[in-house]
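Practice problem: predict the structure.
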Amino acid sequence: MERGLTRKREKLTDYRDDYWVCGKCKMCQSINVQKFVSARFSANCPCGTRYRFESYYAAGMMEIARAITNLEFEPTEKTAEIIYSCNLCGLCQEMCFPLKGLHTTRIIQLMREKAVEEGWGPLPAHASVLESTTERDNPFGLERGFKGRAVRDLEVKDLTRERAENLLFVGCAYAAPGQGERLGALVRALRSVGLDFGVLGDAEPCCRSFNLALGDRDGFEENALENIALFHSTGASRIVTACPHCLQVLRDEYSRAMDLEVVHATEVLAEALERGDLEVRGDRKLKGAYHDPCFLGRWCEIYEAPRRLLSAVPGLELLEFERSLENSWCCGAGGGVKSGRPELSSWTADERLEEANAVGAEVVITACPHCTQQFEERGRLPVYDIYQVLV
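Answer:
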């Protein structure tokens, strides 16, 4: 295998047949009419819905891809602004692929890779994220050592010195300051079902999902093989991820060069529930709407495990958003939009919380630390991580 490569590299022109045949059918602008409940919550593209110009929808971005590869114009700052307004939520591709077979989200990803390669992307606001990832191995500007501090008092095995069947990949977001209660809840839940697991602490690398999202595949691949060697050196047979973004990277990008099964923590806990190894106690009356994270749902197709877990919580009335499962509306934090286009990011979150109010939710529950933080910052409804609800 060529050094540094995980998933096989692709070029934008590999998808020429897709963006050349896009017929502008508008499927990337609305939930399927047979699926949506009300016109108020029928839109499916945050940036297109917000700005109401064709170029911000997937169909417009397919036209941009065609024009760029056909050398019809030179990309400008506006071109970069448009393609980095996409959350990479995948809902346009969810709508388009079953009917037309077009890989719209993948094309937007590859446009970003082309932008980085040619120097007209990403956006200036993304520079600090990439710099922090390179210099501190996390996208948040945190000094090294924060992951070790996050797990210090949790009494979890250190897999740099001990052995366990499962490697819990904590991820930068769950290890960040302010996430201690949620990480502690996850550890308690996994321990309660008898899982043999450990962590890497300060040795745990960043998965670099932000680099991928911004089109910096070189930055993503920089330490990929070293990371894979580290995972293998632990002797674990499986990686259990806490964050959906880490899950997608380790499962879909690393799998070509890695011999380890990768699963999400909700899958592990849902299996334990089915075996009778997980008992959820308490009886707090609460109406909670479960928000499907884009990377856990559409990207990794994990919809039922979180719902099985939440359905077992006594006193919890589990509600569904009008846009749920494969049609779930994005929280607004993904794809580099939170740092690059903050106004759009906030608007997208507010739209989701408006939908939560419309279905009568008292709280929002989700399984992604980025979604949790995004909704919390809006301050409109209490927000719980799924592991908090379980314990």
